[in-house]
Design brief:
- The chain is mostly helical and 291 residues long.
- It has a domain of 122 residues: Alpha Horseshoe (Serine Threonine Protein Phosphatase 5, Tetratricopeptide repeat), CATH 1.25.40.
- It is built from 14 helices and no strands.
- Helix 10 runs parallel beside helix 12 and helix 11 packs antiparallel against helix 12.
- The N and C termini lie far apart (68 Å).
- 42% of the residues are buried.
Length: 291
């Protein structure tokens, strides 16, 4: 029979401690504290052996012990450690553990840390599980918590990520609302004012993806009223040419404007995908037989 690993031996010792009845001279609180410490040691030993699911499971048991002796901050930390272990190949379990972490953090009024963990959930949904809708929901929830804690710049970064995902999901009105929200806040500081043209460009591309040139023009007037320098920017001129091209179903002008803009500003993947969607809309109008 093969010898037990140190991690396995520690786990068995922890389980024995947690299952034991309290003696004459020790309280049940002491039992759970000692059990929690042993589960933590076992979890770290499993991590050394690169047995990440076993490590996560042991941290989860530590969290239960910490909760039983009312150490709620330690319980939150144990769940977070479980999530970090589960992240090594078990994204669903990592999300579950982060959800538990958030529950303890919000109970303790620690919304800034809860927002950090919610943002981690968004990233797992996006990068590991490719679930854009759930990622979007988590980014928005994180943004709201950052907002409450007056971490405006971090909140805006989450709202912007949510807006990008709304657009990819073709929830264009929600995307526009989020971009405008981020732009409105960016206008309040000279340090962030320069970035509003980027958000307004993205919002305008969403309006054009809806083939709503009336909305796009009305929004452009609104943006120019909010910042009079916007009309002279490369972004505003680009939107105006695209809007005319969409109104006239003019693929040639549309393509020419995109090529010219890309030579100077270099389009990112999101803008490229949006412009392709808008262009396909033109093709649909021009070539009904191919639909």
């Amino acid at each position: 029979m093969p010898a037990k690993s140190p991690a396995q031996a520690l786990l068995e010792k922890a389980e024995k401690k947690a299952a034991s009845s309290s003696g004459w001279f020790s309280s049940s609180t002491t039992k759970w504290e000692e059990g929690g410490d042993l589960f933590q040691q076992a979890a770290n030993a499993f991590k050394l052996d690169k047995q990440f699911q076993a490590a996560g499971d042991a941290f989860a048991k530590e969290a239960e012990c910490r909760e039983k002796c009312k150490e709620l901050n330690e319980a939150a930390n144990a769940w977070w450690n479980a999530a970090k272990a589960y992240k090594q190949g078990h994204p669903d379990l990592a999300i579950m553990a982060l959800g538990q972490t958030i529950e303890f953090l919000t109970k303790g009024g620690r919304f800034r840390q809860a927002a950090d963990r919610e943002k981690e959930i968004a990233q797992i949904y996006l990068q590991e599980l490719h679930d854009m809708r759930r990622a979007c929901e988590s980014y928005e929830r994180a943004g709201e918590w950052y907002d409450q804690e007056d971490a405006k710049a971090t909140a805006n970064a989450c709202y912007k990520d949510a807006a990008d995902l709304h657009a990819e999901l073709e929830d264009y009105p929600q995307a526009i609302a989020r971009y405008e929200q981020v732009a409105d806040h960016s206008l309040t500081s000279n340090l962030t004012r320069y970035s509003v043209k980027e958000y307004w460009l993205r919002a305008s591309l969403c309006a054009l993806a809806m083939r709503d040139t009336v909305l796009c023009k009305r929004n452009m007037q609104k943006y120019t009223a909010l910042d009079t320098t916007f009309a002279s920017t490369r972004e505003a001129k680009f939107v105006n040419i695209l809007t005319d091209a969409v109104e006239n179903d003019d693929q040639e002008t549309f393509t020419g404007a995109v090529v010219e803009y890309d030579q100077v500003m270099k389009l990112d993947n999101w803008k490229t995908a949006m412009l392709l969607k808008i262009k396909r809309g033109l093709q649909d109008v021009d070539e009904p037989a191919l639909r």
